[in-house]
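Not sure how to ask, but would you mind making up any protein sequence you like and the tokens describing how it folds?
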Amino acid sequence: MGGGFKDGKDSMTLTKADIAQKVADDCGFMKGEAAEVLEKLLDIMKKSLVAGEDVMISGFGKWTVKSKHARRGRNPQTGEELILDARRVVTWSYSPVLKKAVNGSGKGLKG
């Protein structure tokens, strides 16, 4: 397993496989079942964001789709001016509960 559940100081990236394994271990699922549930969760979130809907997980954070207008830009290597197309971007903001946990108080988090 690559990351995150050891002592909180591991700098490795937590992957979907790691999450699925942790869910399987903690909830008594087979790893394949846990992976399927995780994939379905991510699919639901992705479809909601594509539809322009916000996704909020209480105690964790909120994903929002924002529209960016076309604007003038510059190629940093050549200095050439260009027009950047209008686009949509996904932003994420953390919840106060997650902020407290990351900064050491850890109150309000289960597990």
